[in-house]
Design brief:
By secondary structure, the chain is α+β, with helices and mostly antiparallel strands. Helix content is about 15%, strand content about 55%. An eight-stranded antiparallel beta barrel has the order 1-3-4-6-7-10-11-14. The radius of gyration is 48 Å and the shape is elongated.
Length: about 280
């Protein structure tokens, strides 16, 4: 009994000692943490608040410059030529005509521009009696009373040294190279022995245009009106339109059809409006 009581007493004493140690550790722990925080606060002084970032600088505004102009033209075209490719005088002429066109210009530098152009016209073919080696009257087919016509297409490019006269006005000289294509429509020959048809023919030329022009901004940097005039040398031997051809008449006989005149040059005047891009 005494031994058991002694063991119980020793166990209770050991438990009391353990509880006392735990309480002492808990009591000492906050004190140590607070001491470390106070020491850190004492070593590092408080910092002032960070100032706000300055506002972002706006991107630089680039100055406006002309780059491309695109527009439409009203054209007056004259094509010169009175002799065939062998130098013989013909009785056919191309009358001047009004046509339409489009153009685009690119300003490479302030004093140099490049332009591309396209012009379409339809010329009336004036035929004197006996023209094309035919004694009968010649009309357009299928229009029995209409005059024959020649459809012409001109396209090419030019380099134009440019002089800015003011903020709105410019003048330039131009030199370039182009391509001209002529389409001669089908014609009908009426004779006492009957009627027969002369089939379509065509001709092509290389053009070397030289010109000058003037433009003015109706709405500055937006809309431009311009006037340009140019003359072109036409090089080449044309095509089957400027050579003798053949046809079959109403009696079934082969007939010789005379050539049309070889084009030697052209004059072109245009009045246009351009949108500045």
């Amino acid at each position: 009994m005494r031994t058991a009581r002694a063991l119980v007493g020793r166990g209770m004493a050991a438990g009391a000692v353990a509880l006392a140690c735990a309480a002492t550790a808990r009591a000492e722990e906050p004190t140590g943490a607070r001491t470390a925080q106070d020491a850190a606060g004492a070593e590092e002084p408080s910092r002032p608040p960070r100032p706000p970032l300055p506002p972002a600088t706006p991107p630089p505004r680039l100055p406006w410059e002309r780059h491309i102009e695109i527009g439409a033209d009203l054209a007056f075209v004259s094509r010169l030529g009175s002799r065939d490719e062998d130098g013989n005088l013909t009785l056919a002429r191309l009358k001047p005509a009004i046509g339409v066109g489009v153009h685009a210009r690119w300003e490479i530098f302030d004093y140099l521009r490049f332009s591309a152009f396209f012009v379409h016209t339809e010329h009336e073919l004036a035929l004197s009696r006996g023209a094309l080696a035919q004694p009968g009257a010649i009309t357009a087919e299928p229009r029995e009373d209409g005059a024959p016509s020649v459809r012409a297409l001109a396209l090419g490019g030019r380099l134009a040294p440019t002089l800015p006269i003011s903020e709105r006005a410019r003048a330039w000289l131009s030199v370039g190279i182009g391509y001209d294509r002529l389409f001669v429509g089908r014609m009908r020959v009426s004779e006492p022995g009957g009627e027969f048809t002369i089939r379509e023919r065509g001709a092509s030329y290389v053009a070397l245009p030289l010109g000058l022009g003037l433009s003015f901004d109706l709405i500055q940097d937006w809309l431009t009106i311009e006037l340009e005039t140019s003359g072109a040398f036409l090089l080449g031997r044309g095509g089957d339109a400027t050579r003798e051809g053949q046809a079959i008449d109403a009696q079934g006989r082969r007939r010789t059809v005379g050539p049309l005149p070889q084009a030697q040059g052209s004059f072109l005047q245009t009045l246009g409006l351009s949108l500045v891009l």
